[in-house]
Amino acid sequence: MSTYRALLVEKTDAGFERSVVSRSVDDLPAGDVLIDVRYSSLNYKDALSATGNPGVTRRFPHTPGIDAAGVVVESSDVKFSAGDEVIVVGYDLGMNTAGGFGQRIRVPAGWIVPRPQGLTLREAMILGTAGFTAALCVDKLEHAGMTPSSGPVLVTGATGGVGSVAVMLLAKLGYEITALTGKTDQHDFLKGLGAADIIDRDAARAGADKPLLPERWGGVVDTVGGEILFNAVKSLRYGCSLAACGLVDSPQIPATVLPFILRNVNLLGVDSVELPLDAKISAWQKLAGPWKLGGLDALVEPLTLDTVSDAIDRILAGRMVGRGVVDLQA
Ligand SMILES: NC(=O)c1ccc[n+]([C@@H]2O[C@H](COP(=O)([O-])OP(=O)(O)OC[C@H]3O[C@@H](n4cnc5c(N)ncnc54)[C@H](OP(=O)(O)O)[C@@H]3O)[C@@H](O)[C@H]2O)c1
Predict the structure, then answer these.
(1) Is the pTM of this model over 0.85?
(2) To test ligand 1's pocket by mutation, which of 46, 66, 223 has the most ligand atoms within 8 angstroms of CB?
């Protein structure tokens, strides 16, 4: 197949316009491995790319999609052969390299994770960057000492991609979870994933003017940033940690050193994009093995190339729930 379908974002005088078009494989960047993309998934960052955020994408026309799972068509690298099932998340995929919202990608071999046994291509994309990042957050918190006896764990942006997988994973690992959400109609969804308690997003902003708040959390997975993040830091129990991975509320944090020097707490950064390939492979193997989640379909909103544009608008507006999974063959 020398042509393939893709979502294309073009910069016009009217702004950034999206359409599904036919592309030639010759238009793809040079790279080691050509992949027939079977599934992708929608992440918040894809919406930033699709709307011209220069921190994500500077070169247009462009096909977003920071996640792809598919089958190798041809490879100039001996590590991969035609027919191999593979996963690509992060690095430059979908940023300034044509991404997973197209039926073909061509990428360096050093970006590719062989599909681990125990996870289908579709399951890998239900998780996608969001689920993978949720796992990195939990892993980092556990390395910092978090255990189920540390106390309840707060997950912010809980109905979103990272948040919903974090709730499921923490529940599987035996943690008591409090989910923070702005969606009053999704409490049952969150309880179904394993949340014991729900906090309303607006209530979580109270106390932003106080230096410390009552000790409450044994750990926090934060996807939103801003004052919600720092209120959560101020509510960590002595010696506990918050893993920060997102900024949907704000990249700014109204911080003081007080929680750090009075309560011995830790603010941990999590990046899924430039993580070395070996660490990515280990994390995917964990998600396919000891951390394999059952019931992933509860998270899925099925998408196609023709419906992903509408979902891009909804994720930007904070209205998506769970994971939008794009079937490239539908
Ligand atoms: N560091 C990394 O490597 C990495 C990897 C993946 C994602 N991220 C970042 O993590 C964040 C979440 O990504 P995602 O793909 O999970 O996005 P998502 O699916 O859109 O989830 C974000 C959730 O945050 C909540 N939210 C929306 N607007 C908010 C606001 N103004 N204030 C507070 N909460 C708000 C909503 O959940 P509720 O309605 O339930 O509150 C929303 O569903 C993004 O900033 C993304 O860029 C970083």
Answers:
(1) yes
(2) 223
